[in-house]
């Protein structure tokens, strides 16, 4: 289980737009042959979306393309008297963690909002991937005053190596409510519902309204509000304080819940254009610490994403009162430039972004996504980012993001694609239960909790190809073990793939 244990404006002097040589030096590929590969970004896009079908929980639909998977978790929620079937397993385990699932949904939605026009025939599959998540999030928020945030006891689950189809571990349903707050996961859920409502606005207006209303419309039921964002804001607290033994250390909120409140409000403003959310952001910017850790972005920390998302309004000339968010976004850009000394962002010898903690590819894809998004915003506004004695142009930011994508796809010292099923060489022994165990089709008999251990420890490649899965990736020296026990390197996650969908869509149209 992978976690965080964590055209230029005419009045700019020419000197400011020169790219100093040190910025490009770390981007020279350190590969065996020294030649950059030609990549089929559209094929990679297809595979990156297909991966989500391999992560599905619940009753699989007739058009399910990952054929070695079968129905699973069909009684989820029954112990609590609710229907919590569906949704996604977050990684290589069989638990449905609501916090990363909601973030995954937000990032898939943002990918379509900004880059859906580049997805071609894959757009319909990307939309289906979002709906599989939002259908579940609607179930998780259907009970007034309650948000169900997890299904499955992680300790009993992690004590077994079982196919999801064979699960006989505890499927406890965990919830937050007024007495057990969780502003972080509720705020992210509100963001996911709002972002997805934009995706469905023209495709399915009724469903879009349902998503947005669940996030924003306040209804009363025994004096309890059901709108998810109001719930998050009214009952403030971190869900890992309320549910510590269920969510820690797996998806423990280390960063605090304040960023999710701003993040949720930002997406609600984008989706609804309601003045109240713009005022909420403006009034709470300092209180909720918008300027903290500006170069962090992932399921636990939304700061860089908040600043980039809100900066679009500033760059479009619509919201000068959000200028501080643009300054933070500019600071984020400068902090991730290669060659700029910053303690929180490193680059491997092969040029991969590296941050401390597990599952490094989550940082690579999320930060690269922001680089690309901000590049587009700057391009439309005819702006650059000043960084001391140099400047970052939109073209440079696209170049940086593309280099990270190319590294994932095989332009790296090992000449290995870190996306399963893409390229001639890719990880064969990923840390993933369903992929590593015989499928129900080839082995119909039940495989018990400990009976799967021999498959976990086997040196053999996984029998089922989880096409499109991007693993946690190599370490800071570009080394990769390709071994199931090394879960930080070999486990895929939904939140690695979600921002990559947008990146691959763009580069498939602009190689």
From TrEMBL:
<protein>
    <submittedName>
        <fullName>Uncharacterized protein</fullName>
    </submittedName>
</protein>
